Amino acid sequence: MNIEQFPKAIRPYLIPEPKGEMVYRCLGCQQEMDANQLHYTCPDCGSVFLLYNKNHAELISLSGSHWRMLFDYRKMLNHQALKGIFRYYEFIAPVIPLDDIIYLGEGHTPLVKSNSRLKEMIGIEFYFKNDGLNPSASFKDRGMACALSYINHLARKNNSAKILAICASTGDTSASAALYASYLGDFIKSAVILPRGKVTPQQLSQPLGSGAKVLEIPGVFDDCMKVVESLAEKYQVALLNSKNSWRILGQESFAFEISQDFDYQVENKAVIVPIGNAGNITAIMSGFLKFFEAGIINSLPKIIGVQSEHADPVYHYYKEKSPDKRKFVPVTVRPSVAQAAMIGNPVSMPRVIELVNRYNQKARKEKVFVIQVTEQEIMDCMIIANRNGNIACTQGGESMAGLKKAVELGYVKQDEVGVLNSTAHIIKFASFQEMYFNNSFGSDFEVHPREDLKNAPKLIASSKIKKYPEQGHPLEGDEMKHFIKETATAIAKELKLDER
Ligand SMILES: *Cc1c(COP(=O)(O)O)cnc(C)c1O
Ligand SMILES: [Zn+2]
């Protein structure tokens, strides 16, 4: 819609100017550092940061209804920089000029209501929010759009000649980083560090296709992360893991979208999210808190974090009900179908601890829960979800298994509505589906396919056909007619078709 067609009162706000000041705040010693350059961890105490907007008071001085109206009108605005996650510009990173923002189609992923079969199976109504429909097919694009926009801004401001962006990855961070870096092309190159054999073939093909330098090392993600941290400490590189707090800001858009998707009524919602490095659950809690503090939503939804029993350090931390006795202990991961979340020592744990506290305090009751599910439950749920019209990855299956358990445990009640983060597209995780259908999981996965859920292609080849068409050698005349008739007959028999 053309700008003149918007109501006069909203026009001055539609296309924002950069404003305010952002600071890194250390979660260990609370010190603040200005955000005019990239920092990852506190130079004094080594803890992680969250970014804060010093202009926050001004943002919340405007009414909730002002913001709701602005975001609803922005849906109709055709402005490249504001089409994606930056529809919520003022609540993400309002220091980045619109000209520096990179938009590759991220955000505003569909919210799909589960069909009645799934609803019956889980026990309550729920939706999948399909973040696999982002450009690199996972939610990581939300954070990357923000981080690379900021890096683009810094580079343009400082006339930087060359930047090397690096990350460790369970597959999707590297796909996303490589994609966004490739768009900026000339001055930014990306290098991604992957645990060999621990990302799927599709995830490996993505950074290769985007032209990134792909480095594999033996070990698991936690090992790669340590190497990358050491590189970022010693060398001139831009770290794109979620230690980079700009990524967290972008990922908050998931919470903003859910708010808007439900017309800002999130009272009875329970948002289910798989936890790996814990950047995503951090961002989702932070996002809802921001909207709540600004009066855009009037209550905080429940947040249910889910972990596989093969990689569950956050679950164990919160299993201890008395906060004084809680102690974070990293775990050694075992093979998990939720491979993108197969992390034993999540970098964002200090952020989780801080935000869970704040979230529960603001909500005035316990609203964040962490649940553990089995590998079997994850796989069964993914397959079942996709047999009912969804495009859930293994982590999406983990969300669904988590909701099922949350309902059983009474964390989520009958009159509540689940919103499941399906964090990536199933096609990235097709190899796990294949292992399920072929019953070829290694024993350490502890997954046994259900017979009724298996599927496999069947070759139709009738013994009555002497000659088949081949590439470059089509059949002709009677041979072709014979081939068609016999093959059609064999298929009709296989499908038990009635004649008409
Ligand atoms: C990264 C990732 C996760 C885990 O998210 P964290 O922010 O690391 O907790 C889950 N699912 C998919 C598909 C991912 O790529
Ligand atoms: Zn510190």
List strands and helices in order, with pairings.
Elements lengths: L10 H4 L7 E5 L5 E3 L14 E5 L2 H6 L2 H11 L14 H4 L18 E3 L2 H7 L3 E5 L9 H19 L4 E6 L3 H13 L3 E8 L5 H9 L3 E5 L3 H14 L3 E2 L5 H7 L1 H9 L7 E6 L4 H15 L8 E7 L4 H7 L29 H15 L4 E6 L1 H12 L7 H15 L8 E6 L7 H9 L38 H18 L6
Parallel strand pairs: 5-13, 6-7, 6-9, 7-8, 10-11, 10-13, 11-12
Antiparallel strand pairs: 1-2, 1-3, 4-5
Helix pairs in contact: 6-7, 6-10, 7-8, 10-12, 11-12, 12-14, 15-16
Cofactors, ions and other ligands in the entry: pyridoxal-5'-phosphate, zinc ion
What is the architecture of the largest domain at the second tier of CATH?
3-Layer(aba) Sandwich
Helix content: 25-40%
Shape: globular
Number of strands: 13
Task: Report a brief summary of the structure.
This protein is an alpha/beta fold and 500 residues long.
Task: Give a verbal description of the structure.
The protein is α/β, with parallel strands linked by helices. The chain folds into three domains: 228 residues, Rossmann fold (3-Layer(aba) Sandwich), CATH 3.40.50; 112 residues, Rossmann fold, CATH 3.40.50.1100; 43 residues, no CATH class. The chain is built from 18 helices and 13 strands. The protein has a six-stranded mixed beta sheet with strand order 4-5-13-10-11-12, sandwiched between helices. Helix 12 links the parallel strand 10 and strand 11. Helix 10 packs across helix 12 and helix 12 packs parallel to helix 14. The radius of gyration is 25 Å and the shape is globular. The chain starts with 10 loop residues before the first helix and ends in a 6-residue tail after the last helix. The mean pLDDT is 96. Zinc ion (ZN) binds next to loops. Zinc ion binds next to loops.
